[in-house]
Amino acid sequence: MSDAANAPYVLPGTGWPDDPAAPDTPVAHDAADVAGLAASAPSLHELLARQSVCRACDRLVAWREKVAVERRRMFAAEPYWGRPVPGWGDPEPRIMVVGLAPAAHGGNRTGRIFTGDRSGDWLFASLHRVGLANQPTSVSADDGLRLIGTRMAATVRCAPPDNKPTPAERDTCRPWLAREIDDVAPTVRCIVCLGGFAWQAVWPVLDQAGYEVPRPRPKFGHGAEVRLAGPDDTSVTLLGCYHPSQQNTFTGRVTEDMLDTLFTRAKTLAAL
Q1: How far apart are CA 132 and CA 96, in angstroms?
Q2: Is the dihedral of CA 195, 199, 205, 210 positive or negative?
Q3: Which domains does the chain have, with CATH numbers?
């Protein structure tokens, strides 16, 4: 195994493809830091850089770096990203896709959300079929994939043990998502929530951003659709989508037709 492959993760500024961070990027060490650094980021690029070096949640930091050292056998020769996975895609999107968290051997390995895992295989194949991605696969951060009018982010930016972040970890991470959605709000007209966790997580974010959030909050379901009036005469429509996890795709709870129909609806709502 090469020295590069033996590295637990790639530190900021050391040449990982499209690494937004630099050695002097400020690092959040607790929830207050996250809130302050998210609010004060002078640009979307700097926001992504700060997301990508966050160390606010001790349990998540320990897990993501443990996975990056131990690795799965089939990826043993690869270096792992092993850091928080920032949002990516169109900087002025019409559609925002929000997921749960990076996969331990997917985004935590490749440095890009939904990249290098089976959920991503289903997701990007569908996005390509409906015209929201330039290719049907996402295997590495430098594979040439480009999203069309679309951006992606995770509710929690670090891979969690058993794919289950705690409520405290979700809340600590929320300012990263809130600021990212706030930055792209002028153009976004549809937010696709992959799974119930993401559906629940976006409501306080949208409330904070000045959208008129209904009470009680609408229930999650595949195809659930809620239009919200926003600031400055804007609006956004939330779409619920079952997560394309292996459990859902293997059991038929999610099919290719279901994903294609939903993302076609997202395109219509976003006028793409």
Answers
A1: 11
A2: positive
A3: 3-270 (3.40.470.10)
